[in-house]
Amino acid sequence: MQSREFSGKIQTVSFHYHMYGAHMGSLALEGLDGNSWITLWATTGQQHANHQAPWTREEVTLSGRTIQKIRFKGTTTNNPNGGQYRGDMAIDYVVVTTDKIAASDHWQKTESEDGLYYGPGNVGIGDKQPQADLSILGNLSRPLTGYVGVLKGSPYVTGVNTRFTRELRVGDSIRLGDKVFVVAAITSDIALTLNAAHPVGVFNATAYTDGDLLSVQTGAEVDALLVDKSGNVGVGAAKPAVKLDVAGGIRVGGETVCDAGRAGTIRYNDAGDEVEFCDGSAWSRVEGPKGDKGDKGDKGERGFQGVKGDTGPKGPKGDQGPIGATGATGAVG
């Protein structure tokens, strides 16, 4: 793998490598010094214990030398009898620093002129100065159906044979002439409102908007991941209607921290087997609102008669009662 010729003097070359396998060969970094390739760094044989072992970072200092290009050279083992194939070699994240000061055009466009820009470690699609490993900037290149017009100093756009309600949403970007606006309101298929007045106006023009920003499909051309022009993310959903639209189940992990910055976070509590949410200070069980009091139930059926209990113990002897009154005298015999 060989680089292009660098405009400045190479100061350092850093890279990560992984070499695992019993039949591993050698890996070398070479530099073009004048008309000859010279070895700048090399290692031979297995360097890592298994495929999961962390990669090794190497940095080679070249200050004071006149290296114009670099290349990596991987060599397999020399086995005339064959059969020695167990060896996986890889390199990644190669960074070359030079003594040249980065100018405003440090980010360069690919030769294909397809809107791809590249720089040290970063790639931009539509973005001339990507600040992330992959940066995508919508280019307002998808034409809308029909033709539009807007008066100078007015935010109101009218269309002929347009389909605003089907091709746009509030918040979408739209380009009219060489000016870019945001759709503030959509009244009908032929009328919409911009977020600001058009400074010069256009007549009988084609309007442009963004296409989807990112689309990942399976081999059967089924949508797996989509980021549309409004920033909505669809997982298995071809037309995400909200910020995150998932066509299927969602697995929620066991988050532990709940603070003001995580308010609104949901988690699954493995210990309690229930879904909880963070209110900014504590985790609470996810419950619906308290319902109205239910109707009184019907009277239940009369139960069976219970079993007769045992005879209780004999009570204590009561107190002697008072002497009764003297009875009447009987008849004379």
TrEMBL record:
Gene3D superfamilies, alphabetically?
2.60.120.200
**Compositional bias ranges of the Low complexity kind:** 307-323
Supply the SUPFAM superfamilies for this chain: Concanavalin A-like lectins/glucanases
Give the source's domain of life in one word.
Answer: Bacteria
Spans annotated as Disordered = 283-333
Residue spans with biased composition (Basic and acidic residues)?
A: 287-302
What Pfam families does the entry give?
Collagen
Q: Write down what this protein is called.
A: MAM domain-containing protein, meprin/A5/mu
